[in-house]
Design a protein that fits this description.
Blueprint lengths: L5 H29 L9 H11 L6 E5 L6 E3 L4 E5 H5 L3 H18 L3 H29 L6 H37 L5 H42 L1
Parallel strand pairs: 1-3
Antiparallel strand pairs: 2-3
Helix pairs in contact: 1-7, 2-4, 4-6, 4-7, 5-6, 6-7
Organism: Hymenobacter glacieicola
Protein name: Membrane protein
InterPro entries: Zn_peptidase_2 (IPR007395)
């Protein structure tokens, strides 16, 4: 039986287009909300430090990092890394990002299970990512003689897809913690809270699309594997 892979090609292309649109929308939203100053007058750095202090976290540093939308929490050295704009800005966008990244620090401090599972996957993924593309490429080139390399590549790629989906609850939970805290602490007004929530929602959508794109790519390789097997 011949396995029709045409729908998979369409899904992969659609995922790429949607990913680009989400990224464009995210940058647009952050640029828009960065223009609106917080009534509280707090900068991203001050908000991050205050959230960490409120949760009794004293071993995490808040530092500035280069780039745009490069904000992240590093559990290895326990640092909340805020992009230069977020670090200094006093806007709804900066408040949302700073609190979100501190949400990851709170997850780490409270041993949030999804974050622990994702962190446990990192060493294996770091090793796999170095040679996985070459295994997949070799699998495609050798497909007429053997399916083993492509099969191995699919198994390895499935790990990256799993990681993408494990990331989703981690990101959504961090945003939930962030929004609850900035609201309870009075960091933002109701209008600013709505903007912060909207900004974080679009940021979360980038992870959703990334996970779906990874799944689509995995299905693409699976379709090649099944199609070649059925022709034998």
């Amino acid at each position: 039986m011949y396995y029709n892979s045409s729908p998979i090609y369409f899904i992969v292309i659609l995922a790429m287009v949607v990913s680009w649109l989400i990224q464009w929308r995210l940058r647009s939203k952050f640029s828009q909300y960065a223009q609106i100053g917080l009534q509280s007058g707090l900068s991203g750095r001050q908000i991050a430090e205050l959230m960490l202090a409120d949760h009794g976290i004293t071993d995490v540093r808040v530092i500035s990092t280069e780039g745009r939308l490069t904000d992240h929490y590093n559990p290895a050295d326990k640092t909340v890394n805020l992009s230069e704009a977020v670090y200094e800005e006093r806007s709804a966008a900066a408040a949302a990002v700073a609190a979100h990244e501190c949400g990851h620090a709170v997850q780490h401090a409270t041993a949030y299970s999804a974050l622990q599972f994702r962190s446990a996957m990192v060493p294996a993924l770091s090793a796999v990512s170095k040679f996985m593309p070459f295994v997949l490429l070799a699998g495609v080139f050798m497909i007429r003689t053997t399916l083993i390399p492509l099969g191995v590549g699919i198994v390895l790629f499935s790990l990256t897809t799993l990681f993408s989906f494990v990331t989703l609850p981690v990101e959504f939970d961090a945003s939930k913690r962030a929004l609850a805290w900035i609201d309870k602490r009075g960091i933002v007004t109701p209008q600013e809270h709505a903007m912060a929530k909207d900004a974080l929602w679009w940021a979360a959508m980038t992870y959703v699309v990334a996970a779906l794109s990874s799944l689509a790519t995995l299905l693409y390789y699976v379709s090649i594997f099944l199609g070649s097997r059925d022709r034998r």
